[in-house]
């Protein structure tokens, strides 16, 4: 996995910056991600744009970033507030540039202003263990960047890089959501519901299947040897 293997580079850089060997980083999760309008606070995000197209967004939870920044800047007194300073965000940007360089050479990236992302991209969280503190670095790749990297790595003479990235995408675990039933009731009835009330529901003959907000296809739920199974409809389109 391209991101997982590169965490060693981040660990090495953090140890050098903080002059401590009591810090390490490792990949926590990589998954498909559907962007929504209000999921990121633009003033707290470090954003980089690839010269061919697409953006990568990096942000670190405030407690972790403050701990890293206080160590980096050799602060004498621990802060009592979690409000981030411009110095904190500069360190986050420095870390973000390292993460971006895992995916493409540093000269292919430029710091840019935050813009809302749309569509489905990738999300990765990196676990950071620093002395007695544990925190997370969050990384999001927009849809255009995933397309750009896939195309460019396909043209790379180093086939191993392309296959590593391709394998990372194909091995990403996704959470399928299946809507089995639905019920429309007046709000007054909903507010009047009590514990142990019985609410009749309507089972759907054709159930929608989705990842996040993205609808994929419809299917039918049936019993198979005492276990509920999902049968895909004949009109399901191929993902290839």
UniProtKB/TrEMBL annotation:
Q: Highest taxon of the source?
A: Bacteria
Q: Which residues form the Flagellar motor switch protein FliN-like C-terminal domain?
A: 168-229
What residue stretch is flagged as signal peptide? Answer: none
UniProtKB keywords: Cell projection, Cilium, Flagellum
Q: Name one Pfam family in it.
A: FliMN_C
* The keyword Disulfide bond is annotated on this UniProt entry: no
| InterPro entries, per the entry | FliN-like_C (IPR001543), SpoA-like_sf (IPR036429)
Q: What protein am I looking at?
A: Flagellar motor switch protein FliM
Organism of provenance:
Vibrio pectenicida
